[in-house]
């Protein structure tokens, strides 16, 4: 079992680094080449969500991304925002997406969740075991070489 | 690859060519340019995503914001996109039902009713 753990301060500029590392580890773990774009997008969305929550709640703590390839390729993105921040995650219907009443933040959150749910077959959003925060857990199959 | 932005005029349409990665870090620059275009009087805006290698929810939010801004100003907004990876993103988020999406700039600038090729 190989595990790579990356922690970064909640700044948008670091999300790209997390994507690059996440895809590099996925490739090495044996995730199919045709899934790598989806891995890249999903890790980016999960990290973007975590960074947005930390900024929203004024949290300077690090966002953590943990990648493991024991049986499948598992990525955990952990934030430290209050759990209620994760309540209400839902895909928005088309007629609401362009509604004037929808804020940019809510639109981005809804679209981000739609992308996560659409691209990751095995997706869980759950509270962390210790303290405040949520964990976005994503799993992709690997091809053993 | 860093975000690249270039503007040109085609048949009375303002075409914004976007290249590179549009994400939570670079999307503010795209938003800024689109706001500048609308504020400077552009009313038929086409965003060409042909050079885009990565697009996330923040970038999609910026595009929706530009479309709303133009709608208020009685303008038109369209996207040019033929990459399957990006089109899948629009389908998954249902934004293919919100944006007029065209396969080429010619199709975007010649569509008089702004309905897009996806409708």
Keywords, separated by commas or semicolons:
heterodimer, A: 145 residues, alpha+beta, five-stranded antiparallel beta sheet, globular, B: 119 residues, alpha/beta, 5 strands, 30% strand
Q: What is the global morphology of chain A?
A: globular
Q: Output mean pLDDT of chain B.
A: 93
C-alpha Rg of chain B (nearest Å): 13 Å
How big a fraction of the residues of chain A is strand? 15-25%
Distance between the termini of chain B: 32 Å
Structural class of chain A: alpha+beta
> Could you give the order of the helices and strands of chain B?
EEHEHEHEH
How widely separated are the two ends of chain A?
A: 15 Å
The total beta strand count of chain A reads: 5
Quaternary: heterodimer
> How would a crystallographer describe the biggest sheet of chain B?
5 strands, mixed
- The residue fraction in helices of chain B comes out at 25-40%
CA-based gyration radius of chain A: 15 Å
Number of helices of chain B: 4
Number of strands of chain B: 5
3D architecture notes:
The complex is a heterodimer of chains A (145) and B (119). Chain A has 145 residues and is an alpha+beta fold. Helices cover 40% and strands 21% of the residues of chain A. Chain A is built from 4 helices and 5 strands; from the N terminus they run βααββααββ. Chain A has helices at residues 13-29, 36-56, 94-97, 104-119, and strands spanning 3-8, 63-68, 73-78, 122-127, 134-140. In chain A, strands 1-2-3-5-4 form a 5-stranded antiparallel sheet, with helices on one face. In chain A, β2 and β3 (73-78) form a beta hairpin. Chain A is globular and about 50 Å long. The two termini of chain A are 15 Å apart. The relative contact order of chain A is 0.20. With 119 residues, chain B is of the alpha/beta class. Chain B has 4 helices and 5 strands, in the order ββαβαβαβα. In chain B, β4, α3 and β5 form a beta-alpha-beta unit. Chain B is globular, with a radius of gyration of 13 Å. At the A-B interface, α1, α2 and α4 of A face α2 and α3 of B.
